[in-house]
Write a structure and sequence with these properties.
InterPro entries: RmlC-like_jellyroll (IPR014710), RmlC_Cupin_sf (IPR011051), Uncharacterised_HutD/Ves (IPR010282). This is HutD-family protein. Pfam families: HutD. The chain is mainly β and 193 residues long. The protein has two domains: 9-119, Jelly Rolls; 123-191, Jelly Rolls (Sandwich). The chain has no helices and 18 strands. The protein has strands spanning 2-6, 12-15, 22-30, 41-50, 62-70, 74-77, 82-85, 91-95, 101-104, 109-117, 121-128, 132-136, 139-144, 150-154, 157-161, 166-171, 175-181, 184-191. Strands 2-3-4-10-5-8 form a six-stranded antiparallel beta sheet, with no helix packed on it. It has a five-stranded antiparallel beta sheet with strand order 1-16-13-18-11, with no helix packed on it. A four-stranded antiparallel beta sheet has the order 12-17-14-15, with no helix packed on it. It starts with a strand and ends with a strand.
């Protein structure tokens, strides 16, 4: 097990692919020996504010998971379906090819995005709201302190994570994660291709 504390003051800020806003890049991975751009992206864990209704970036070949962590009332609309994120800490999953426009029913929101190259990675995104254990598989796991400080336990060791910081956990085998206190968002990435 390898753990790395990612501090909020070190996060990179970059424009959305469509230029409509700015996201905070917490952690990402790109194809080896490639220029770090949208075409070489394997996965990205990021936060972004959504302050006005508008279209999402078109991202062919990318699967996306999203969760509201600040504010409430977000709805994503596509030509064929609607994704309801009105309640915070609800995960929605959609493809980057889908034409999506946001609707804000109660003003600005802050979201966590986990996106990954289809066929190369498998993704999961969940809110850890109640103390308790969950099994982690081999892969990369990101525990983000989305609302205040939190404490988690991994293999008998407690880790305190300050608000908006992230603990990156790289596992070569299965392990157990326990939320001890607070609230956290867990993003999990497994390389599959």
């Amino acid at each position: 097990m390898k753990t790395t504390l990612l501090k909020s003051e070190d996060y990179a800020r970059s424009p959305w692919k469509n230029g409509g806003g700015i996201f905070t890049d917490i952690a990402d991975a790109h194809r080896a020996e490639s220029v770090k751009d949208w075409d070489s992206l394997l996965w990205r864990f990021a936060t972004t504010p959504i302050v006005a209704p508008g279209p999402f970036s078109h991202m062919p070949g990318i699967d996306r998971l999203q969760m509201v962590v600040g504010g409430r009332g977000l709805v994503l609309k596509s030509p064929t379906e609607e994704f309801d994120e009105r309640e915070p800490f609800t995960t929605v999953r959609f493809t980057g090819e889908l034409e999506i426009v946001t609707r804000l029913e109660e003003g600005r929101v802050e979201v966590v995005n986990l996106m990954g190259r289809r066929g190369a990675v498998a993704l999961e995104l969940e809110a850890l709201k109640e103390p308790g254990e969950r099994r982690l598989s081999a892969g990369t796991h990101l525990i983000y302190a989305a609302r205040g400080d939190c404490t988690i336990r991994l293999e008998g060791t407690d880790f305190s994570i300050s608000h908006e910081n992230t603990l990156k956990v790289e596992l070569t085998g299965a392990s157990t994660l326990a939320l001890v206190s607070g609230l956290a968002v867990l993003g999990s990435i497994q390389i599959v291709g």
